[in-house]
Design brief:
Order of helices and strands: EEEEEEE
Distance between the termini: 38 Å
Structural class: mainly beta
Number of helices: 0
Radius of gyration: 14 Å
Number of strands: 7
Strand content: over 45%
Helix content: under 10%
Largest sheet: 7 strands, antiparallel
Length: 128
């Protein structure tokens, strides 16, 4: 398996995960199953608030749908909304067949780590 995901925080309104990448995975693989998060009810959705990464080759973060939609393309070391950045959250804009889940995909050998901070935006018991 190329991806191992650890949930660091799963509170009422946010989730933080750390995914370790240790190989090649030429197909999209689920790394965040939103239906498994605390408080998930009907059609749960999250947005990505921040991301930090260190990867040895290009890795895509994708929103799951009939045809997955690329949210971020990562390469090298970087961050989205890290430090003093004040960028908007990345909303799930997948279309037909949307599940709310997050997939990773890399087509070349890759070693690295990706941290995702997500905001629970809909489909959770504690959100009105």
């Amino acid at each position: 398996m190329a991806y191992t995901t650890q949930t660091l925080v799963d509170s009422d309104f946010e989730t933080v995960t750390k995914t370790t990448i240790t190989g090649t995975n030429g197909t999209a693989t689920k790394v965040v199953d939103v239906s498994e998060l605390a408080g998930a009810a009907t059609n749960p959705r999250v947005s990505i608030v921040a991301c930090q990464w260190s990867v040895s080759s290009t890795t895509e973060i994708e929103w799951d749908a009939t045809s997955n939609v690329t949210c971020l393309t990562l390469n090298g070391t970087g961050s989205y909304n890290g430090g003093r950045q004040s960028l908007p959250s990345l909303a799930n804009n997948a279309g037909s067949g949307i599940t709310g889940d997050i997939f990773f995909e890399n087509d070349a050998a890759c070693i690295g780590t990706v941290w995702l901070k997500m905001k629970k935006v809909s489909g959770f018991d504690n959100i009105t």
